[in-house]
Design goal:
alpha/beta, FAD/NAD(P)-binding domain, 8-stranded mixed sheet, 15 helices
Length: 545
Amino acid sequence: MGRYVHPRFAWHPTPDAAASSPVEHETVIVGAGPVGLALALDLAARGRPVLLVDDDDTVSVGSRAICWSKRTLEIMDRLGLGDRLLAKGVTWNTGRVFFRDREVWRFDLLPEPGHRMPAFVNLQQYWFEQFAVEEAGARPRVEIRWKTRVTAVEPSPDGVLVTLVDPAGRYRLHARYLLACDGARSSIRRMLGLDFRGRVFEDRFLITDVHMQAEFPAERWFWFEPPFHPGHSALLHRQADDIWRIDLQLGPEADPEEEKKPERVIPRLRAMLGERQFELDWVSVYTFQCRRLPHFRHGRVIFAGDSAHQVSPFGARGGNGGIQDADNLAWKLALVLDGRAPESLLESYDLERGQAADENILHSTRSTDFIVPRTPAAIAFRDAVLELAERFPFARRFVNSGRLSLPTVYDGSPLNSPDEAAFPSAMRPGSAATDAPVGIDGRRDWLLHALGPEFTLLLAPGDGVAVEELRNAVADLPVSVAVRTVGLGQDADLHDCDGLVTRRYDLWPGTAYLFRPDQHVCARFRSPRPEGVRRAVLRAMGWEV
């Protein structure tokens, strides 16, 4: 089994091992999975050196996380991987839901044009990691130490003393911050005596990658009680390299070791796929967990991704949630390390991504309860919803085969500034920026590219708005703030080519939006004044104003 050829990354001796005392490192990341790699790339792009350690010497085995959402793709585009993910992955926007022997609902996750990224790209986690490792290799601020295992951590007020073991032996180093991205079985979490709170579901699911030539379109197909797998659910996704992901519900009584055997797997797949030729590429059996740490920050140790929270796979919230953890944390930590923001800014990571974890757990729990109803009443409700959804649009909003990942709106974040005038509910403070085409220096590009990795004030010119005065007002702040005009006219910094920026952001003349370095809105103004903009920037940096 296995058509992908796993790269093997070389281990090299480190001079840290021969040092007479622990060598100081600014940031140490544990775990070279998607989250740890994204964090390393983001911190390096912000000028911070990073040491990334992993106890393996290759990328993940099996496809694992495969559905990368629009927001994750936008983040990785900023980190230099967008084109590679699009080129290698399978783009899809359409989902189809079946009940028994018929289709009951078809939906489009990106019904409007004018976005650089699609709703989802399916790409095996090993490809994602390989591309990220290659990108990290081109960043001089990123050092990766393979076959290096953390065996002890000793937190203190000024950092973390870390004990590591590699092929040459044991040594110690000191990190100002330790970022634990070491997955659901996190050794760092165990060393600190921390545990998850939440719910573990009893049902077991077979997950398999199948290599086959098939005419099925690039869509998400989900079945409730199909004829080929009666009484259970099934899921089909297309991936790169003619690999297809198939999930089959097994029930709580299934024996994981028995169910992974080819003589058990192949008949189940044959019932689904008929006489079509296929080969097994990877097989696993899993149970659902919807759990999280009560807090993601523990002094100078910070958890991200599966080491901080776990959700069921329906909805593609695990990997995407982890990448968005990295996106939220990197700019804040970079500002703190650079001495431009107070360390208390990191508390907003715990608050905002805790909110996101709670949201993802809520959606995942509801999805699992709908997919695997446990009582006669719950089964009757689900079946009635599916029957009605075929004919009545009102019922379709109750169908839950996995509410697919969307970026969390950080409502209530202390980094947000309240509106001082009337705005629509869309694009409120805490929202991730919505992309749209813009003209930059005579060429067609994208709004998210124009926002960049810094604070940006996006301004629709209007009477009474002094652009230069606003630029001067933010020039002496402890961070760089780009002030860019956008409009339908050619004289703006950004030309609103198709009018989508104006429409999506409700840009009256004089309207302005302030975006954080992670491209989330933190303030909006109908008539921006210099002092109000300054206060909003400082508040978003964690300073009391």
